[in-house]
Write a structure and sequence with these properties.
By secondary structure, the chain is an alpha+beta fold. It has helices spanning 8-15, 23-31, 47-62, 66-78, 83-92, 95-102, 108-116, 146-159, 193-200; strands at residues 120-122, 125-126, 139-142, 167-170, 175-178. The chain is globular, with a radius of gyration of 18 Å.
Amino acid sequence: MGRYTGPKARINRRLGFQVFENAGAVRAFERKEYPPGMAQRRRKTSNYGLALVEKQKIKFYYGLREKHLRRYFDKARRIKGNTGENLMILCERRMDNVVRRAGFTKSRPQARQGIVHGHFLINGRRVDRPSFMVKAGDKITVKNRPNLKQLYKELSEDSGDTGCSWINFDGDELTAIVTSLPTFDDVSLPVDVGQVVAFLSR
């Protein structure tokens, strides 16, 4: 199964959170903040259903497939510390998330597209894998092409303040430096990681 390409507003409404940040999905969510299909009477959500929603938040927010999420989970279990927190920190360190959090783009899908097309460099080297794990001290720049510089200059001006303390972004130079690795407090997605860990441990 490939990445989700269906109605993004429907996912936002189902999960009760603006997972997809494009303008149309945000407007639709603001108009109808209740889940789709609420015209029908619904049963109380089970514990399994609640945990599934939390897991789906992570998958859609970071653009992960099931096997990728489980791979991160297995890696998080081998790292010393809280498994749920380690899982979220690994997701935050993905290059597509860092490009979005820095302010180069307005959404993660937009960041993924730019990375796959080779628009970004890390420490002067081209990286075309959205899943690339950044490290403290890494410097991200836009490829030195006038059209790309102009594109990301405009996108960064429209992306707004992402409030990311562990990335130092220079909008004039179009550079971002990862000043430190993120902590769990820096995670941008509100999610109950305890339920996700319990779900993935089944």
